[in-house]
Amino acid sequence: MTTITDGVYRQPLPASREDALSSLAGFPFPFPHETYCYSANVEPAEQVRRSAAGQWGETVIDIDRHYTAELREKDRVLTVDPQRYVALPRMISAEWDALLAILNELATVYPDHFTLSGTGDDRHWSNRLSDPPVEQDFTVGDTSTLPCAPLEFAGRQVQEDIALLAERDGMLWGDSMVVTFAADWSPAFDAGMSFPEIHGPVPRVHEAGIVERAQKFIMGLQPGQRFRRTNWTLTIDGRLDTGTESYPEWGPDRLSVVNGPLTEVGDRVFLRVEVQHLIRLQWSGAVMFLIRTYLEPLSAIAQIPEWALRVRDVLAELPEDMAEYKGVDRTRWPAVEWLETYGAVDATRPDTGN
């Protein structure tokens, strides 16, 4: 694969089989079945999920070896496009609530790297893992004591993207978010929309009542309750920033995979998985929606034969409307062919009745 030098962070390929297996050990493989059906798939958070490669899910906020590189990429994206952070003025209390929740979580789960100290409203935040390290005094409720808005500051401390959902008029509304690693959507466009409006383009979920049930479930969350779900798509060349705003930069990559050499597909097509956490905040009552993105190339996935087979089955049998919505309607076929040609997957496909 040709080296790209445009300043955009792309997750590096594993250096060896051992490196690939080490990375896969914490990968949240998203396919429990050989066909994919869109569903809420919500489960309690902080429960360990064991997989063919290892385990994942022990923590809400996950710090891994890509932490410093991904934070630098967040800084680049927010510098190039400040509209990746967007918030309605009425959400400022929820932003402070989210900031304290995230900083407390980091300091509790990873005390070797993070410390939140102070009493009352006067706090000091220490992030020793960031490059450069962050040492920040701030006063809760006083935005002038932070270098940016509270939610943006929180987003710059974690690999997760963050959205805050407010509840009014019997619905949820996406009123505040800092999203740098969107999978083909726009935070600036979605901000201020209702939960059903945000999910308007998703095929089949409205007819099946999934959106209505999901909204009702989220609105029923109690303060401190934590749940999670997964979502997935395919990404080319390990790029995290695939937001709508940057589509002219990454959109042509899809066609280059379709028209390029099959031998390169294993290193260019990545399975992209989001672990999404839903948390009802204690003080503001807003729901915090965390989106953590994981990427693994097919060449790494193929090191786990049952995963390679499952990915091939899901991609081959995915209904066309779902494939188009996920943006994989063209790239899935080179992926399927590569898995069958180079990924040691038997070309015999399951009969699903579709």
Automatic annotation (TrEMBL):
Pfam families per record? HODM_asu-like (PF11927)
Protein name according to UniProt: DUF3445 domain-containing protein
Q: Which organism is it from?
A: Corynebacterium variabile
